[in-house]
Automatic annotation (TrEMBL):
Its cofactor is Mg(2+). Pfam families: HpcH_HpaI. It comes from the Bacteria. Mg(2+) binds at E115, D141. GO terms for molecular function: lyase activity; magnesium ion binding. This is Citrate lyase subunit beta / citryl-CoA lyase. It comes from Deinococcus hopiensis KR-140.
Length: 275
C-alpha cells in the first residue's frame, strides 16, 4: 500500500462506470470502489464486473474495494474478484468482532468499518488483528443503531469516534473519519473535518468530488506549519550537536517528542505533495 497520507478517501459506486473513470482524476488520496451500500441488489453482479475492469488498469492512487458483508449472497464473489485483481485493500462493512476479521486470512490490507455499537465496543480488539491497516467509521449506521438525533457537533457520537481513534492509534493503524452526507453544505463539511482532525483522525471518507480538496486541505499541513517545523528541528538538531537533551524554540521547551512531531509534519507535507 502507498506510503502517502490518506487525507481524503473517496467512495465511488461500483455500478457507475463514468464516476469510476472520473475518480481517477480528482486528487483523492485513495478511492473505494463500493459494492455494498451504494449498489442495489439487482446491480451487484454488474457492479462487480465494472470494478474488475477498472482494477485491470493502473491508478494514480491506492484503490480499495468495499465488499458485501459476511452472510450475503455476494461476499465470496466480491472477495475473490478483488483479490485476483490485486486491490490495495479490502473495506469490510459492519465488523463487530476481531475473530471475524482474523478468520479471513487475506493477504491484503484490511479496513474494517466500525458502524455498530458492538463494533465500537470491540474496536481495540479489531485494530489489533494482524493485517488490519486501519479503521473506518460508518457514522450513519452507527447513529441509527444508537437511536441518536442529528447534532452539528456530532455530540452523541463523540464517545464512539474517540474510541475508534484510540483503538487505531494504540496499534499503529490509520483511523478514518465518517462521511458527511450533505454535499451542498461545504461549511458544515469543513467544520466536521476540523473536528475530525482535532479528535485525531488521519483523514476523512468522502462521497462527492467537491469534498476531496477540502479534506486534503483540512487533514494536510500548511506552508506556515512546515516552516515552523523546520525551524524547530533546526533548533533541536543544534542542541543535540552541542550535547544537550533539550532545546528552546520560540521561547518554548523542545524535547524529543516535539522533534518527532515536527518530523511527522514534514513527512506529511512531502508525501502529500509528491507525485
Amino acid at each position: 500500500m502507498s506510503v502517502k497520507p490518506l487525507r481524503s478517501v473517496l467512495y465511488v459506486p461500483g455500478d457507475k462506470p463514468r464516476a469510476i473513470d472520473k475518480s481517477r482524476t480528482l486528487g483523492a488520496d485513495a478511492v473505494v470502489l463500493d459494492l455494498e451500500d451504494a449498489v442495489a441488489p439487482e446491480h451487484k453482479d454488474a457492479a462487480r464486473e465494472n470494478v474488475r475492469g477498472a482494477l485491470a488498469n493502473r491508478w494514480p492512487c491506492p484503490v480499495f474495494v468495499r465488499v458485501n458483508g459476511l452472510g450475503t449472497p455476494w461476499e465470496h464473489a466480491d472477495r475473490e474478484m478483488a483479490l485476483l485483481t490485486g486491490v490495495d485493500g479490502l473495506v469490510l462493512p459492519k465488523v463487530e468482532d476481531a475473530r471475524t476479521v482474523g478468520a479471513l486470512h487475506l493477504r491484503v490490507p484490511l479496513w474494517p468499518m466500525i458502524e455498530t455499537p458492538l463494533g465500537a465496543l470491540h474496536a481495540a480488539e479489531i485494530a489489533g488483528v494482524p493485517g488490519v491497516a486501519g479503521l473506518i467509521v460508518g457514522a450513519n449506521d452507527l447513529a441509527r443503531a444508537l437511536r441518536t438525533r442529528p447534532h452539528p457537533e456530532r455530540l452523541p457520537l463523540l464517545h464512539a469516534l474517540s474510541a475508534v481513534v484510540l483503538a487505531a492509534r494504540a496499534y499503529g493503524k490509520v483511523p478514518l473519519d465518517a462521511v458527511y452526507n450533505d454535499v451542498r453544505d461545504p461549511e458544515g463539511f469543513d467544520r466536521e473535518c476540523r473536528q475530525g482532525r482535532t479528535l485525531g483522525f488521519a483523514g476523512k471518507t468522502v462521497i462527492h468530488p467537491s469534498q476531496v480538496e477540502a479534506a486534503n486541505r483540512a487533514f494536510g499541513v500548511t506552508a506556515a506549519e512546515v516552516e515552523t517545523a523546520r525551524a524547530l528541528l533546526q533548533a533541536w538538531n543544534q542542541a543535540r550537536a552541542e550535547g544537550k537533551s533539550v532545546a528552546t524554540h520560540g521561547g518554548a521547551l523542545v524535547e524529543q517528542m516535539h522533534a518527532d512531531e515536527a518530523a511527522e509534519v514534514l513527512a506529511l507535507w512531502t508525501q502529500g505533495t509528491a507525485g
